[in-house]
Amino acid sequence: MSPMRLIILLVAAGAAIGAALLVRGMSGPSSPVAAPGEPVVIEKEVEVSSTQVLVARMDMRVGSLLTPDDFEWSDWPEKAVNAGYFTQERNPDAIEELSGSVVKVALIQGEPIIGSKIVKKGETGFMAALLEPGLRAISVEISPETASAGFILPDDKVDVILTYDVEVVTERGVRDTTVTRTVIENARVLAIDQLFGEVDGSPTLTGSTATLELAPKQAEVLAHSSRLGSISLALRSVADSDENDGVATANTQLLNGGDEGGGVKVFKNGSISGRS
Predict the structure, then answer these.
(1) What residues form DSSP beta bridges with 137?
(2) What is the secondary structure of 3-39 as a DSSP string?
(3) Coiled-coil regions in this chain (predicted)?
């Protein structure tokens, strides 16, 4: 082979190799090239350890009674876990233990639950946290016969019925009679001291005291009524609980000796105690 032909073959082979390398470089991934003067940012994934923390499943206002559906376990960065948080590792039964508590400080969705923002059932301040702002808790004595045979439970709505003896003055003279009237409507039951007992030989839940949520004047009506005669609680339908926007109403005229000013004198222990 002549030297000239050998040179031509070597040049052609070199050109072919160069072209192959060029094509390979264009088809491969391009490396980012930082512009002059710009910092080079290197991204690196870092694995962060997490733990399960008990959080609020939804927004909850002050006074809300907590149920198991109001909680959920959520992943939380382990280094950001506060000592006051309830973790699944330390407190596996936290949902069951905290159910029935009352929200003392408003909670937002996804916020970790801490002890200072809730009041557990039985703790000091539980009833105060359960009350709506401006309202009062007042108790009244009841019996199975005057409280729907034990079917009234906390958060139910009831009417308060007063039954008392009166002396009616008519044109024909004076006669004794018994008067029954509803003095408070749509009152919320906060608590009832239920005990297991029997009614007509059948096991049932009974209570001797009911605690109602009322406005200050309404609480006065209840206290006054309990002195006039016997109190009965009438359970309201759930469908009627939103009547008057769910707010309780009361016959406050009773505090002035009567609601109609007619010739009816209230007798208690043999003496006149007021007018109805």
Answers:
(1) 213
(2) HHHHHHHHHHHHHHHHHHHHHHHHHSPPPP-PPTTPP
(3) none
Strands (E), 142-259: 157-170, 173-199, 202-214, 230-235, 249-250
35 vs 104 pLDDT, higher one: 104
Could you identify the residue written with the tokens 């008990």?
Answer: 54
Share of the chain above pLDDT 90, in %: 31
73-79, Cβ contacts within 8 angstroms, sequence gap of 24 or more: 74/110, 75/50, 75/51, 76/50, 76/51, 76/52, 76/112, 77/48, 77/49, 77/50, 78/48, 78/49, 78/50, 78/51, 79/48, 79/49
Rg of the chain over CA atoms, in angstroms?
A: 38
Task: Decide: helix, strand or coil at residue 227.
Answer: helix
Q: What is the mean pLDDT of residues 148-164?
A: 82
pTM higher than the cut 0.70:
no
